[in-house]
Amino acid sequence: MKIFDASVISLVSNALAEDIKGSDITTDAIASRYNPQIKCEVITKEEGIICGLNIFSLVFDILSKNNYEINYFAKEGEKLTKFQKVISIKAKSDIILYGERTALNFLQFLSGIATASNLAANELSGLKTKVLDTRKTLPGLRSLQKYAINVGGASNHRFDLSSGILIKDNHIKLAGGIKNALEMIRSYNAGFNQKIEVEVSSIEQVIEALEGKADIIMLDNMSIAEMQKAVKLINGNTIVEISGNVTMKNLREIAEKTQADFISMGSLTNAVKPIDFSLNFI
C-alpha cells in the first residue's frame, strides 16, 4: 500500500471533517486573539510497536498545507519503551488542537495492531508456520489495518473478495458440496492461474477437498486432535491453513502440534487494544 495514495488522503480528510465539522468552538474562542507557534511532543504511555507516523503527519499536512515542523524520535515498526518521546511538532496552536485527536487516534489504533501482529509473529519464532490476518477489519480502514499488520511482522491474507479464491461453508451449501463448488470455480475461472482454498470443519470435508484437488485447505474451528488427524491425512498434498478459536495463548501450541503452513487470526484487527499516546505542549 502506498501510504499517501488517494484513498488514504480521503480517509484522513474524512476523519478530520468528522471531528471538526467546520469549527472547534473552544480552540477558536481562545486562539482568536493570540495564536502563537506552539511546540509539543508525543509520548507513549506504554510499550508497543509504533505504526502510523506518516498518517500522523498527514493530518497536519491537510490542516496546515505543510506549514509546520515535525521531527521523529522513533522509526516505523520500532519497539517503544514506556514514556518514550516519539514525535515533536511545531505549528500554530489552533492547527495542533484541531488535529491532535485525529492524529493520535490513527497512531494509537495502528500501533495497537502492529503490536499484536508483532507479538503473534514472535510467538511462532523458529517454526515454519506463519501468521496471517483476515478480512475482519473496520469498514473503510482495511488498507491501514493491513499495512499495520505488515509493520508488526505478520502477513496479509486476502485483501478483498477479488484477490483470492476461498470456498467457505455457505458457498459449499449453495453449490451442494465441496466437489461441486471446486468444479464450478474451475469452470468459471478457466485460464486463470489462481490457487483455490477450501474451508473445512470435519475430517469428511478434508477428504472431499483432497479428492477435489483443492490447493489450500483451511481447517476451521477444529480441535487440536482433529487438526492433527487432518494434517496427517493431507500429508503435504496441499497447503494447510488453520483458523478459528486461535488466541495468543494457544497460537504456538497449535503451530507446534499441527505444523500447519499458516494460522489466520481475526483478532489481530478486530480485537486489538490501542497503544496509549499523549500530546503535550512544551
From TrEMBL:
Annotated Quinolinate phosphoribosyl transferase N-terminal domain ranges read: 24-111
Q: What is the lineage of its organism?
A: Bacteria, Deltaproteobacteria, Candidatus Acidulodesulfobacterales, Candidatus Acididesulfobacter
Record EC number? 2.4.2.19
Which pathway does the protein contribute to? Cofactor biosynthesis; NAD(+) biosynthesis; nicotinate D-ribonucleotide from quinolinate: step 1/1
Species of origin reads Candidatus Acididesulfobacter diazotrophicus
According to the UniProt record, one GO cellular component term is: cytoplasm
* Record-level GO BP terms: NAD+ biosynthetic process; quinolinate catabolic process
Q: What class of enzyme is it?
A: transferase
SUPFAM superfamilies hit by this protein = Nicotinate/Quinolinate PRTase C-terminal domain-like, Nicotinate/Quinolinate PRTase N-terminal domain-like
Question: What protein does this entry describe?
Answer: nicotinate-nucleotide diphosphorylase (carboxylating)
Annotated keywords: Glycosyltransferase, Pyridine nucleotide biosynthesis, Transferase
Q: Name one Pfam family in it.
A: QRPTase_N
Question: What is the gene called?
Answer: nadC
What InterPro entries does the entry give?
Aldolase_TIM (IPR013785), NadC (IPR004393), NadC/ModD (IPR027277), Nicotinate_pribotase-like_C (IPR036068), Quinolinate_PRibosylTase_N_sf (IPR037128), Quinolinate_PRibosylTrfase_C (IPR002638), Quinolinate_PRibosylTrfase_N (IPR022412)
Example of a GO MF term: nicotinate-nucleotide diphosphorylase (carboxylating) activity
- The segment(s) forming the Quinolinate phosphoribosyl transferase C-terminal domain are 113-279
